[in-house]
Amino acid sequence: MTDLLLANIRPDARQSADILIRGGRIAAIGRDLDRPEGVPVVDGKGAIAIAPFVEAHVHLDKILWGLPWHSINVPPSLRAMIDNEVAIRKDLPWGVPERAGNLMRRCVEMGSTHIRSHVDISTGYKLDNLHGVLEAWEKVKHAVGLELVAFPQTGLMIDPGTAELMEAALDEGASVIGGIDPATIDADPKGHLDTIFGIASRKGAKIDIHLHEPGELGLFELGMIAERTRALGMQGRVVVSHAFCLGDGPAHKVQRMIDVLAEAGIGIISAVPGEIGFPPMFELAARGVRCAVASDSLRDTWNPHGDGDMLDRCWLLAYRTHCRADAELLRALDMGTRRGADLLGLEGYGLEVGCEGSLVLIAGENLAQILVDRPARALVVKRGRVVAADNQWIDGEVP
Fold this sequence. Notes:
Helix content is 34%, strand content 22%. By secondary structure, the chain is of the alpha/beta class.
């Protein structure tokens, strides 16, 4: 069903109104709308309606969600953590389709109706992780949009054949080329970046690069990324995830780099990590850099924290950056909603006539209070179809 009338709701915490969805799109917004024959009516009971959350960076193939508790072993280096994960994933009782499906349903329950997921591609995994995530998505695609990044987690230049597999992934369901720490993982920043930009340019794909490398090294690599973005005319199509160097680099160089990022149209995604510096998200936004927050690693071999709730992630940003005034809290909420949609270029996002008929109902006083208290998601609607209520998946297709 793609037709729905939501009555007695408060769009973006404004005055009470109705929203009529026809054919999966918002057809009308107003007080006491006529009730078309045959269109289901839901009484929102005065709840606030917001456009859905956007999960802009997660790893569906790594997830352990739904499995028994996994105690985290934290190896001493990034390389050791990668190798530890590869070993553990060989013996998991569930495959990628089951685990990825669990997390996608969880994200929908908490109000996210679009996900960008990185999936590991290597000569060891080949395209198995990609195929597994796509298999899971077939069961839930009515409820959530999905964008996949071909991600060389275990290395690109040091694993000959991975580049070819990443390019093949673009013909089998991925639409974004990933990268990771060109110096630390591959010890070849130029070769790594030339390879992924070359693939993206040939295939018309977007780019999303994990950049954990700190300080001067990370800023140098951001400059290399910006240089290639401009040279290939890829402004607006490149994202850097994490970018810790913007949080711990020399202040004057960070300030210059922010201008470079804005001019090159490069987006920044942060998971708001707890133990290290992260990019100044509100300053980035104020200076024209597209940016958003996301969950990244959660409930997997890297990290036991997180539950797929983007409202919680927005609150974490607010807490870590000392947001107190209502206007500050709303800017934090934007980082998991509107700014996430802008960053990923989602068409038809919003609560206006003509937009996709997708929204989240949350009972609360106002948007600031919702962010602080993080109430249950009373209803989640995707293109006019109710897909979750009271934080519970309700579609009959779920086994």
